[in-house]
Amino acid sequence: MFFTKYKCLLCSAFGNEKYFKITNKLKEHGVKYQTDIIRNPNTYPPIDHNDRAHYDIYVKEEDKHKAQQAIKSIL
Known about the structure:
Layout: E1 8-14, H1 16-28, E2 34-38, E3 54-59, H2 64-71
């Protein structure tokens, strides 16, 4: 991640279900975020078609506490 205002790693999520639970909570609380998807090219079937994806979710430093409060019930 280069030249972004979302510099604080909030958490990593493994699998689509966990990712969507976290991002839905952030949206509910008005926290903007950015996601990096870590892909393993050796995975078959391709990672986009299963529930083994690895997501790193970033927030702005000033939103970190609000974001942590928003997702604490699901971590």
